[in-house]
Specification:
By secondary structure, the chain is of the alpha+beta class. Helix content is 30%, strand content 34%. The protein has 6 helices and 14 strands. A hairpin with a 5-residue loop joins strand 12 and strand 13. The longest helix is centred in the middle third of the chain and has 24 residues. The protein is globular and about 50 Å long. The structure holds adenosine-5'-diphosphate and uridine-5'-diphosphate (UDP). Adenosine-5'-diphosphate binds next to strand 2, strand 7 and strand 12.
């Protein structure tokens, strides 16, 4: 597999073409951003942890029946993935109130929902990723009705699987963001990443935050939290 030209550099990853038109290489960086890029920093070692965590979790999800873009880990920071056309939706599942949900609806962080919620943001940095509903997604032609149904089904399956997995590691899965894409034949698969950048993960006993909120909220101990959550994952694989 040959690594060819860089196609894209995002906030957390770089994307490269390969000699196979159906495959890409993603490279995970240590760069961290928050609040739509307003806050910038570095989390040393994050790229390695996010790469490895995302790959372990996607491999597990694949076995559990959720198709993903994951193909093969190439090294500590680089992974071979199936090329997709990203559906421009951020799909957010929540089990417990936190972050923008708490702020928007005036609910204290930590309130446990009877059922998980799903919400969609239009993935558009210029607009600040606005919250939309599925009718808006259809009006904007971001996805077809069948694709939205598939995405919802997979997103709740991912939640069921990850919630149980993290529970076995002594970690509570509060909420997370997923992205989906279309393979060349139109099949919907889970893409992008699943990591402490994209999930809220709290220690089940102490409630300690083991995710990017430590960076967003200047809580300190960011690198330590990423190392701790990776360690929990590795000892429960
Ligand atoms: P951002 O674009 O939000 O700054 P990243 O730095 O994580 O995010 O960049 C990675 C980019 O690659 C994202 O835009 C993401 O949607 C896209 N992407 C993720 N997985 C795939 C894939 N399998 N095929 C094509 N694009 C992908
Ligand atoms: N999230 C993400 N990328 C985004 C927005 C949110 O990965 O652009 C994740 C975030 O880490 C959290 C969940 O989605 O696990 C819900 O985030 P929320 O809407 O509460 O937004 P925030 O508080 O980050 O503004």
């Amino acid at each position: 597999m040959e690594k060819l030209q860089q196609l894209y550099e995002g906030k957390a990853k770089k994307v490269f073409a390969t000699d196979d038109p159906e495959l890409l290489i993603v490279e995970y960086k240590d760069d961290a951003t928050a609040f739509n890029g307003l806050k910038k920093g570095t989390i040393h070692g994050k790229g390695v942890i996010n790469n490895q965590m995302s790959n372990r979790l996607m491999a597990k999800l694949e076995s559990a029946g959720v198709p993903t873009h994951y193909v093969k880990e190439l090294n500590q920071r680089e992974t071979l993935v199936k090329k997709v056309r990203i559906v421009p939706l951020e799909v957010i599942i929540r089990n417990i109130a936190a972050g923008s949900f708490s702020k928007r609806y005036g609910v204290e962080e930590g309130v446990v929902f009877e059922q998980p919620t799903i919400e969609f943001s239009y993935k558009n940095d210029d607009l600040g990723d606005p919250l939309i509903n599925t009718y808006h997604a259809l009006a904007l032609k971001l996805a077809t009705p069948a694709e939205i149904e598939t995405i919802k089904k997979y997103a709740f399956q991912v939640n069921d699987f990850l919630r149980a997995f993290w529970k076995s590691c002594g970690v509570t899965l509060v909420d997370f963001k997923l992205e989906f894409g279309r393979l060349s034949d139109g099949t919907i698969v889970l893409a992008d990443e699943i990591s402490p950048d994209t999930c809220r993960l709290w220690d089940s006993k102490t409630g300690e935050k083991l995710d990017k909120d430590r960076f967003r909220r200047d809580m300190g101990g960011v690198e330590e939290a990423y190392a701790e959550i990776m360690n929990r994952l590795e000892t429960h694989l």
